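Lab notebook, design round three. We kept the backbone fixed and only want residue identities now. Task for the bench partner: fill in a sequence for the structure below.
Input structure tokens:
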């Protein structure tokens, strides 16, 4: 369809929004599979700038290129979580693509990011197909909320993984499966005065 196009600029955010709106209009939860290859640079919502400055690597300013340059993808991810929609991103980049920014939509929705830099079908094709088949064939549940309960005087203070939190207790995950992992940090109970043993309870509510 687009084999003869001369258009070289790309968009991403509007395509994600269209997929989200399609699922919402159908009153369905679900997952968006996104296959993307270049930095979104067209004059459209979600446009990003090139920040690939290798002179910053190893300096105190390196973190500026490892954090999102815009919050629009984070905001879209929050909308996706509210609708029970997760996003899996398959990146086929030959140049800078800013995964620190666009990857947020996968991270916050409980999705995954697959990266095939300088993709070659004869070398990477089998791995890509296996990744996709494994992804679409494993059982998953949508629109999940996870909460960790602890003994009195002890609480989980930090959470790590692909999810979204609107408060300090509820972990919202648009899709969850057996391969999903969430890390929680609980302070050393010997420092809290509670003792060496504590009790933890993990609850997952799936709509």
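Proposed sequence:
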């Amino acid at each position: 369809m687009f084999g003869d196009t001369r258009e070289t600029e790309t968009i991403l955010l509007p395509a994600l929004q269209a997929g989200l709106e399609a699922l919402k209009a159908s009153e369905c939860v679900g997952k968006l599979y996104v296959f993307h290859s270049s930095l979104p640079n067209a004059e459209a919502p979600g446009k990003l700038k090139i920040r690939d400055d290798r002179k910053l690597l190893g300096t105190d300013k390196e973190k500026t290129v490892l954090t999102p340059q815009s919050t629009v993808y984070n905001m879209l991810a929050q909308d996706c979580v509210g609708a029970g929609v997760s996003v899996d991103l398959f990146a086929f980049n030959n140049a800078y693509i800013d995964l620190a920014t666009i990857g947020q939509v996968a991270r916050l929705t409980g999705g995954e990011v697959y990266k095939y830099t300088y993709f070659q079908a004869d070398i990477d094709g089998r791995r890509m197909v296996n990744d996709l088949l494994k992804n679409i064939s494993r059982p998953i549940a949508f629109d999940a909320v996870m909460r960790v309960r602890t003994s009195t005087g002890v609480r989980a203070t930090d959470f790590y993984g692909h999810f979204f939190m609107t408060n300090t207790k509820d972990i919202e995950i648009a899709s969850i499966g057996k391969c999903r992992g969430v890390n929680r940090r609980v302070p050393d109970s010997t420092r809290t005065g509670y003792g060496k043993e504590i009790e933890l309870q993990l609850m997952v509510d799936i709509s």
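Keep this in mind before ordering anything: The chain has six helices and eight strands.
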